């Protein structure tokens, strides 16, 4: 048999090129760059969760270890106000009707309530909460809101009372809450982030125990567990912040954070079907806890905590 070195060299070259091309494709990253801003670093603060006040165009950010809340301009990241919350360990934050700011304060085992100017109005939940972390809400009718708080007491143990809820009524700076109730009976282990979609009647909650990494989906009316492709998604790192991009025709997508020091990703899931869409990275953002989305000037923005010490803001690309 005759040997043709040139022929075999060409074949080998083609295989090498194909291999390198496929490797590059598999390692391809969807990186969102050109940050709108990064806030100044607060290295000892343990930055965690983020809420957005639309009319004031500010974000409210919790600093757990510093026992502080920070108010930043939502367009340029300039610090506008610092609120001291001594010995409280402020963690989760949610905005009620753009008028109230609710913050879970873990070490005081309650929810602190502020108005949009960040004046302190009072607390609730100390009679039942043991280790509150995440918080979310939705409007039921004018002046009436449903509040959900994740209670991560007895860490990493199975419990069916991880989500506590209240009815909150408010008129201006005056508010009141109903007796608490346990939402659903679904077993969860280590809970923090929680987010509601009132249109599709769903509640999403992150379970951060390594053996049970997932985003659980619960029926907003019954508390029953909903099997979904989102919950089947395989998280190899800690599932953390959850946020919703909601368009006017009730479409959009969920953003679910996979927290990592070296592979920090943001997974996108269709709002209605909960099918996986894509994953993206944010430039110079790692080890993300809380995230928030905001609609301003006809664009959607994503705010994400970075390595416990600052927040980055990015214009979200169009997602088909």
Question: What's the count of strands?
Answer: 25
Please report which band the strand proportion falls in: under 5%, 5-15%, 15-25%, 25-35%, 35-45% or over 45%.
over 45%
Radius of gyration over C-alpha positions, nearest whole angstrom? 22 Å
Instruction: Give the averaged pLDDT, no decimals.
Output: 92
| H/E topology pattern | HEEEEEEEEEEEEEEEEEEHEEEEEEE
Percent range of helical residues: under 10%
Question: What is the rounded distance between the termini?
Answer: 55 Å
Q: Low-confidence runs (pLDDT<50, min 5 residues)?
A: 1-27
- Kindly provide the name of the CATH class: Mainly Beta
The CATH topology name reads: Neuraminidase
- Major beta sheet, specifics? 5 strands, mixed
The main sheet orders its strands as: 1-22-21-20-19
Shape: globular
Structural class: mainly beta
User: What is the number of independent domains?
Assistant: 1
Which superfamily, in CATH terms, is the homologous superfamily? Answer: TolB, C-terminal domain
Word description of this protein:
The chain has two helices and 25 strands. It has 320 residues and is mainly β. It has one domain: TolB, C-terminal domain (Neuraminidase), CATH 2.120.10.30. The protein has a five-stranded mixed β-sheet with strand order 1-22-21-20-19, with no helix packed on it. Strands 11, 12, 13, 14 and 15 form a five-stranded antiparallel β-sheet that branches. A four-stranded antiparallel β-sheet has the order 2-25-24-23, with no helix packed on it. A hairpin with a 6-residue loop joins strand 17 and strand 18. The radius of gyration is 22 Å and the shape is globular. The N and C termini lie far apart (55 Å). 41% of the residues are buried. The N terminus is likely disordered.
